[in-house]
Design goal:
alpha+beta; six-stranded mixed β-sheet; five-stranded antiparallel β-sheet; about 55% helix; rod-shaped; disordered C terminus
Length: about 525
């Protein structure tokens, strides 16, 4: 059932064909029922007209025979009635089932009136009880013929049409004369028409479905081709184009699509060329600055070493010069690293590593900075190893950036590092309780050279590219880098990497949202964006 629903949702052609066929079926059933009812009513009306005329002639003939009789006794009158009924059976059309002669309903008592009594006469297979009482009362009360369709099946199972009128028998008074006609022929005709309608309706519905399939295919195929071409364009095959056939609207669509694709290809190639030139420019500039920077740094170190012989202002200048040269060197290194990521030249060298060991190296490396800023760094880790196939140099760089940022923005408050692992992944969380971030700032945390507060100076000598490089290192591992923040409550960064290099992550063993908070979360674009619990 699930596969059928999926196919139904995925195929426009299937939906159009099925809906068209169902609508066609509904129309055929409705129109066919209307026409069949009309044909049946017409056949019955025509049969009633013929039966009324035939019954009127037969009743007139019977009355003439009764009027011409010279019988006097009861037996003679009864014999006459029987002869007339027998004669009428063969006188009508071939569809006359029989004739019934009955004493009139409510006739006066024969003893008082002096009339003779004639027994009811009916053709074979019929009797007086077959005539509905409502029809008998209508016949007696009216001077004109009365008719009624009666559920009086014959050998074929068809109903019958009964036509009644009154006649006067000699010395017996008023009697009711009924002619019974079979509707078998009309029933057969309606059955034949119904069969024809059903067969023709089924054929028509199938034909409508086939026509809908052909027409829909004619329209849908170019749409499918356009979708496939768009998917290939999205996949980087910018030379893909649709085939143009004819000059109709679909051909116009194909030409417009191709023109759009050509324009996109041109713009993308221009942007790629511009991006390539920019990356090359950054890389070349960074490399070219290395040589003069090295010379200036050597000179700065000489001045820094000799600062004790300078006056206080010159000594302070020598210290500042060396500090800014180190920061400049860090910026150049980060620019070169970013250019390698942009050029796709960054390579991963995974090796089984206990992430706890990497965390402790980072804590030891940043201990002096944390002490200077007045922050206490604590580590919570499991007792067992947290081994994962990672590039230790890159993971250590990511964690140095996270811990360094936590120290810089932690407002001299405790910083908590948490290591967690499960069967598929290892995670490291870095939590500070400093200035924090606004919810609208979270998506921009990993942007290059972005700062939450532009007026806030970088006190630890950062280049502004640390989190951007950390994001690229995490992507290279196929991991997630997520962040939670709240103004005045600090931030929580969580790095999650798979235990086995190359495997996809399904979840993180460490939640990014601290317990008790319901706040937005920013995540690595390649990974899931965690919803707030």
């Amino acid at each position: 059932m699930g596969r059928l629903l999926a196919r139904w949702r995925a195929s426009l052609q299937l939906r159009v064909v099925v809906l068209t066929t169902m609508l066609g079926l509904a129309v055929v059933v409705g129109v066919g029922s209307f026409l069949l009812d009309g044909i049946a009513d017409g056949l019955v009306a025509e049969r009633q007209k013929v039966a009324l005329a035939d019954a009127a002639r037969s009743a007139q003939t019977a009355q003439q025979q009764f009027d011409a009789a010279t019988t006097t006794s009861s037996a003679e009158v009864e014999q006459l009635a029987g002869d007339v009924v027998s004669a009428l059976e063969g006188a009508g059309p071939d569809r006359v089932r029989g004739v019934v002669l009955l004493r009139a309903t409510g006739a006066p008592d024969t003893a008082a009136s002096g009339q003779v009594v004639v027994r009811d006469v009916a053709s074979e297979g019929l009797n007086a009880s077959d005539i509905p009482m409502a029809l008998r009362r209508a016949v007696v009360a009216s001077d004109v013929q009365q008719l009624q369709i009666v559920d009086l099946p014959d050998a074929s199972g068809a109903p019958s049409l009964v036509v009644g009128s009154t006649v006067t028998l000699p010395r017996a008074g008023e009697y009711e004369l009924y002619f019974v006609y079979s509707l078998a022929s009309e029933e057969q005709t309606v059955s034949l028409v119904r069969t024809t309608f059903v067969g023709g309706g089924i054929a028509l519905v199938l034909l409508v479905g086939a026509v809908a399939w052909v027409v829909t295919r004619t329209v849908v195929e170019p749409v499918r081709e356009a979708a496939g071409t768009a998917e290939r364009l999205t996949g980087g095959h910018l030379d893909e184009r649709m085939r143009v056939r004819g000059t109709d609207d679909l051909a116009r669509l194909a030409r417009a699509f191709n023109e759009m694709a050509a324009g996109m290809q041109q713009h993308i190639e221009q942007l790629e060329e511009l991006s390539r030139l920019q990356r090359r420019f950054v890389s070349d500039v960074s490399h070219e600055l290395r040589t003069p920077l090295t010379t200036i740094r050597m000179a700065g170190e000489v001045l820094h070493d000799a600062r004790d012989g300078f006056d206080p202002a010159s000594a302070r200048s020598a210290e500042l010069l060396l500090t800014q040269l180190e920061r400049f060197d860090t910026l150049l290194s980060d620019l070169l690293e970013i250019s390698r990521f942009d050029a796709g030249a960054a390579a991963l060298e995974p090796d089984p590593q206990d992430v706890r060991v990497v965390v402790h190296r980072v804590v030891e490396f940043t201990a002096t900075l944390a002490e200077r800023r007045g922050s206490h760094v604590s580590v919570a880790e499991p007792s067992g190893p947290c081994t994962a196939e990672v590039d230790a140099r890159r993971i250590e760089r990511v964690l140095r950036n996270l811990v360094g940022n936590a120290i810089e923005h932690g407002e001299a408050r405790p910083i908590e590092i948490t290591v967690a692992a499960d069967e598929h992944a290892v995670a490291v969380g870095v939590r500070d309780h400093g200035v924090g971030l606004q919810p609208q700032q979270l998506p921009r945390v990993f942007d290059r050279f972005w700062r939450a507060d532009p007026a806030r100076a970088r006190t630890t000598g950062g280049s502004g590219l640390g989190l951007a490089i950390a994001l690229e290192d995490t992507r290279l591992h196929g991991g997630w880098l997520e962040v939670w923040g709240r103004p005045g409550q600090g931030c929580h960064f969580v790095l999650t990497v798979p235990r086995v290099a190359g495997r996809s992550l399904r979840s993180s063993p460490l939640p990014v949202v601290p317990l008790g908070w319901r706040e937005p979360v920013a995540a690595l674009p390649a990974g899931p964006r965690h919803e707030t619990p």
